[in-house]
Design brief:
Peptidase_C19_UCH, EC 3.4.19.12, alpha+beta, Papain-like_cys_pep_sf, Ubiquitin-like (UB roll), 5-stranded antiparallel β-sheet, 7-stranded mixed β-sheet
Length: about 1200
């Protein structure tokens, strides 16, 4: 039965036997996991404490031990809060056991920790990593508890619950004298090898008679000589015991793993198997009857009462029992109550056995009592008895078993226990309870039963804290950050999207739950962006060196963000899905912009070509042909070479064959940062070998060129200094000074500065850097310049006056990184020879334009993330204080019968005319329309708080001197628009809304349009320019403003009814269309309200905010009266002319204009584990204080 339990098996040893010296602890930021479906708590393994966990769970599930421990209050044990006080008498071990048991009962966590308990044992981390024998631990722990409880009411707790006595009798065969000897025990050890089962092992060890004879005679005291005798144990029929805990060991004698099977006496856990959870309902009436069936006294009484004389042979009693309940006594009750005859003997107060124990009957007193108790429910009981199938042991009404394996708790069936008495994983220690022990009804399924009040309060508070921690952790784990890039705040140039003002104002951070759907995200953004008008499309975007690029549009509003694989920190571009600033945006990976370095010879008026190369960055779509480089650089023809070197500091130019010029950049394998060289085909013989390699020894370069820039008389001298990537800059500088034969004083007052391809001196390189750390390529040119390089706490900055800066004209300055913006501004003004306080600093962006202002004048440069080499611009004009806006105000009045705002491509040709009026000029050979001119007149600047309302902004604008020539009665007669690219952009509609809520930013400009009557537009109003088509003519009447109330929806039907009412026409007798000025086309709005989608065959309400209309404030709506004009055409003669000019303009673009459009100025930067030798076995001990 016990199989090969005693064979050593190293393969089954758990890792906790060979610990690494570390405790396995839960992540500090995450609360412990809640209990699983069994509703029972495990215990975390500290590395090698599986044996301790198994014993503690057994003691915890022993109700008598647990409740006896709980009965000891703080007045006897003391308090853990006082354990560090020198004079306090605190019994730490029992207190920690109480606390651990309370956690196992009540704390909602998957597994409890024994760290505090093992600390109270005096164990170190090494002890917690070392495995010991669980029986040895049991004895040592009981001893420690006895010592800890001296002088308390629980001083005899262990003795009362676990003490037993073995009585050995030796009977002399001669005089029949009986000699008895008693031995105390807490546990019994039995030898199980070569026996069939545990009962045989117990019999062999303690019951079987031992005979003293022959060479092993017994000395009888009465006979006073050696005699034959027999030794045996007393047959104790007083008690029967039930197995309730099986501690199981897997492995060999020197290690392995422990876990425990435990019977849940108090029904504290949920024994239901996970696959059975679908049918959890239990009939309460059946449950009560099943409890009666599980009681053998009730069953036997019921069977005997059915007999006329209440007398029946014992053998027939067993048969009648089988007939009634469908299962025999041995299968149903023997394990728990023993043999039937022995059960009847133990209950002699109820059953009367004959002298030969062949028949049994009920005693008269118990018969009368049983009859009155049982016959009330006799019919119901017998019905239950005859209908119940076999296998009642598996019903949830009786205590059930669980496998507790450290942190994991799983339900098991009784048949699983039988498998643990054979093989490598076998029962090692068994715990029994007296069968007669009955639990009170109030203890059933009640984990709070007999738990002291102070522990109940502590566990309740801990559970509340756990709930809070889990809620916070759940929010943290399921929330992620999204970066929203708002389309209206971006413009498209140089092949990518760039912020109009600054990255800060163009991007919003949003924390969102990734379990929510895309539709939820869209709705949240709508609520966040109150100013948003029209359709909203969300697309995944990413930053590439050229700027922001849109990749894929997010679809499926019913899908969660996890399902559409949105990542934490994802960039989301919010736009209308078509255009930004009037330009259609290329999207997708195929057209991803590439930032390439293009080298080409500089041209000179004296020579046809100079040998100096110009290195310029260009942006190209990935799917563009390589040959487009010629167009971008305005070079008619030539040879293109690509740098195929992979190592830093090396160059290897390879010619691209002419037939490959039709390939795309991606097909050619080019990526961001790749270098191209354009060489005129006329110089092919002098610059290229026949194999197409650039003639240079640059692949073998091991030197740097240092140019003397310290002395004017010797400037221009240069030397080559041999070096490697690991050479220190200081050594190169000293060698250069020696070889240039300069004054030794320069060793203390000079520095090396890289020289770029255009001859500009860059930031000085620190002396302690290696060439690799300084990112210097072999063959680079360095300038030896006067002055020390900045220290690690200093910044080297370039600065210039004004926003029109030419590369190479900047001034330089070295300042401490802790200097404030205000002090840095003073130093720069002093060095520039400027005075006054009406200046501020701005960062220069990557395209050499004034970028974000340094608003926090008291902040240190280090705090603003400025670094050496950055360029700052001195801009005239003082920044408004924080919370104040300086808003330029313009006067706007639409002109002409068909006013139209200019497209984005016209913006570059706007000029500031005399009198402060902006007018849009036509591009040569481009379509233009004099009637579509946008006229903006500058009125002045208004300084106003962000907390002021739109109405207050209008009122303050009316006080400007330039405004006095206009006769405007009140601010309600003004309509406000933002100015975007020198034309009206977004309509600011709510008169009482605060400016802060419009997200205007520091560089927003406003234009004001005069009205004929007061107007106060609400958020549901849309302003449209309507024009009635003249009958019989391809022309329209002057535009008239129409305010459309979209409270009933953005549907075509709603708009048609509004237009029909406005013009007093029948709704069925009008046709309307939206004008697309950038295409000179009209888009008819259908007369039906619903459209059928092909995919789902479902009716979907149309929305004019979405594609293809994207209706918004200021759009032009053409109207035809079908009573007077039934022509389907909406276009005009001017539209025909405009389309023709567009076609001519597209065909007539010359190459230099194309190069100007795409060119940019600068670039931003398992083998098996060998057997381990066994060390000496360490002793196990628990340190206990003295309480005597």
């Amino acid at each position: 039965m016990f199989g090969d339990l005693f064979e050593e098996d190293y393969s089954s040893m758990s890792n906790d036997h060979y610990g690494k010296g570390k405790k396995l602890k839960t992540k500090a930021l995450e609360p412990p996991a809640p209990r699983e479906f069994t509703n029972l708590s495990g215990i975390r393994n500290q590395g090698g404490t599986c044996y301790l966990n198994s014993l503690l769970q057994t003691l915890h599930f022993t109700p008598e031990f647990r409740e006896a421990l709980f009965s000891l209050g703080p007045e006897e044990l003391g308090s853990l809060e006082d354990k560090d006080k020198p004079d306090a008498k605190v019994r730490i071990i029992p207190l920690q056991l109480q606390r651990l048991f309370a956690q196992l009962l009540l704390l909602d966590q998957e597994a409890a920790s024994t760290a505090d308990l093992t600390d109270s044992f005096g164990w170190t981390s090494d002890e917690e990593m070392r495995q010991h024998d669980v029986q040895e631990l049991n004895r040592i722990l009981f001893s420690a508890l006895e010592t800890s409880l001296v002088g308390t009411s629980g001083h005899d707790l262990i003795n009362r619950l676990y003490h037993g006595t073995i009585v050995n009798q030796i009977v002399c065969k001669e005089c029949k004298n009986v000699s008895e000897k008693q031995e105390d025990f807490l546990d019994l050890t039995v030898a199980v090898r070569n026996v069939s089962g545990l009962e045989d092992a117990l019999w062999n060890m303690y019951v079987e008679e031992e005979v003293f004879d022959y060479d092993n005679l017994y000395h009888c005291g009465t006979c006073d000589r050696l005699v034959k005798a027999a030794k045996s144990e007393l047959d104790d029929l007083e008690y029967m015991y039930d197995l309730f805990s099986v501690i199981i060991h897997k492995g060999g004698c020197y290690g392995g793993h422990y876990h425990v099977y435990i019977k849940d006496v108090d029904h504290l856990g949920n024994w239901q198997f996970q696959e059975d959870k679908s049918n959890p309902d239990v009939n309460l009436e059946d449950l009560q009857n099943e409890e009666e069936i599980d009681d053998p006294l009730m069953i036997l009484k019921a069977v005997l009462l059915q007999e006329e004389s209440n007398l029946i042979p014992v053998d027939q009693l067993g048969q009648k029992l089988l007939k009634k309940i469908g299962i025999s006594w041995n299968k149903k009750y023997r394990k728990q109550y023993g043999p039937l005859r022995k059960f009847l003997q133990l209950h002699s107060q109820i059953f009367l056995l004959s002298s030969d124990e062949s028949t049994v009957s009920l005693l008269k007193d118990s018969s009368l009592q049983a009859e009155s108790d049982i016959r009330r429910n006799d019919q119901q009981l017998l019905k239950t008895l005859t209908s119940e199938p076999p296998g009642l042991n598996d019903r949830p009404s009786c205590p059930h078993w669980f496998d507790i394996n450290d942190s994991k708790v799983q339900p098991i069936k009784e048949k699983d226990i039988e498998q643990q008495f054979q093989g490598k994983e076998s029962a090692y220690m068994l715990f029994y309870r007296k069968s007669q022990l009955q639990r009170p009804p109030e203890a059933r399924a009640n984990p709070r039963y007999r738990v002291p009040c102070h522990l109940l309060n502590e566990m309740d508070a801990a559970n509340t804290e756990l709930q809070i921690q889990r809620a916070e952790c759940d929010s943290t784990n399921n929330n992620f950050e999204l970066r929203l890039h708002l389309g209206p705040h971006y413009h498209f140039f140089n092949g990518a999207l760039h912020p109009v003002v600054s990255q800060t104002e163009s991007m919003w951070d949003l924390t969102f739950d990734k379990r929510k759907t895309l539709g939820d995200l869209r709705q949240s953004i709508f609520q966040l962006l109150e100013f948003w008008e029209g359709d909203m499309v969300l697309s995944v975007a990413k930053f590439v060196p050229a700027g922001l690029h849109v990749y894929q549009t997010l679809d499926g509003d019913h899908l969660t963000l996890c399902e559409i694989e949105i990542a934490d920190g994802e960039d989301i571009f919010v736009w209308n899905g078509v255009e930004v600033g009037g330009i259609q945006i290329p999207a997708g990976r195929d057209c991803e912009p590439l930032l390439l370095n293009v080298l080409h010879p500089a041209t000179s008026s004296e020579e046809e070509q100079c040998q100096r190369l110009i290195d310029s960055p260009y942006v190209f779509p990935s799917n563009a042909e390589i040959g487009s480089v010629f167009t971008a650089c305005a070079i008619p023809d030539g040879v293109i070479l690509v740098n195929s070197a992979e190592s830093v500091g090396e160059e290897s130019w390879t010619t691209i064959p002419k037939e490959d010029l039709k390939k795309t950049f991606r097909e050619q394998g080019l990526r961001n940062g790749s270098s191209l060289l354009i060489q005129s085909s006329n110089d092919g013989d002098s610059l290229l070998t026949k194999r197409g390699k650039w003639i240079t020894s640059v692949n073998e370069v091991d030197w740097l060129q240092v140019k003397n820039l310290c002395q004017l008389d010797s400037e221009g001298e240069q030397v080559k200094i041999s070096a490697t990537l690991n050479t220190v800059v200081f050594d190169i500088r000293i060698k250069a000074i020696k070889e240039l034969k300069l004054m030794k004083e320069l060793a203390e007052d000079s520095c090396l500065r890289p020289i770029d391809r255009n001859g500009k001196l860059l930031c000085p390189v620190p002396d302690n850097y290696t060439l690799k750390e300084a990112e210097l390529k072999m063959g680079s040119s360095l300038g030896l310049c006067p002055g020390k390089a900045p220290t690690s706490s200093q910044l080297f900055l370039f600065f210039a006056v004004g926003s029109d800066v030419q590369p190479g004209t900047e001034m330089e300055i070295i300042v401490e990184e802790t200097i404030s913006v205000r002090d840095c501004l003073k130093v720069m003004l002093e060095k520039s020879g400027l005075s006054g306080d009406a200046w501020h600093l701005r960062k220069m962006d990557w395209c050499y334009e004034a970028g974000e202002a340094l608003c926090e004048e008291d902040a240190a440069l280090k705090e603003l993330m400025l670094s050496s080499g950055d360029t700052l611009l001195l801009i005239e004009g003082k920044l408004p204080p924080l919370g104040l806006l300086k808003v330029p105000v313009w006067w706007y009045q639409p002109r002409g019968p068909l006013h139209r705002w200019k497209s984005h491509q016209d913006q570059t040709n706007c000029t500031f005319s005399q009198g402060g009026v902006w007018r849009a000029n036509s591009i040569q050979d481009a379509p233009s329309d004099v009637h579509a001119e946008v006229s903006l007149r500058y009125l002045g600047d208004v300084e106003i708080s962000e907390d002021a309302t739109l109405g207050e902004l209008k009122s303050q604008a009316m006080t400007l001197p330039s405004f006095l020539e206009f006769s405007i009665p009140s601010p309600a007669f003004l309509r406000a628009w933002t100015v975007e690219s020198r034309r009206p952009g977004r309509l600011l509609r709510v008169h009482c809304q605060r400016l802060r809520e419009y997200k205007l930013g520091q560089r927003t400009e406003i234009c004001l349009e005069p009205l004929q009557k007061e107007e106060n537009l609400g958020p549901q109003h849309v302003l449209l320019r309507t024009q009635m088509r003249l009958p019989g003519k391809r022309a329209y009447a002057l535009p008239v403003d129409l305010v459309w109330d979209t409270a009933r929806g953005w549907t075509a039907g709603s708009l048609r009814h509004q237009v029909a009412d406005f013009y007093s026409l029948p709704v069925e007798k009008i046709e309307i269309a939206k004008y697309l000025p950038e295409k000179f086309e009209w888009l008819p709005v259908p007369s039906w309200n619903q459209q059928i989608t092909k995919r789902k065959k479902k009716k979907k309400q149309d929305n004019l905010q979405g594609a293809p209309y994207h209706l918004k404030d200021g759009d032009t709506i053409g109207i035809k009266n079908l009573l007077a004009d039934d022509d389907d055409d909406f276009s005009t003669v001017r539209d025909d002319i405009g389309r023709e000019k567009q076609k001519a303009f597209a065909l007539g673009k010359n190459k230099s204009q194309e190069a100007l459009r795409v060119r940019s100025g600068d670039v931003p930067s398992g083998a098996e584990t060998p057997a381990r030798p066994r060390g000496p076995e360490a002793s196990l001990s628990i340190h206990v204080g003295s309480f005597r």
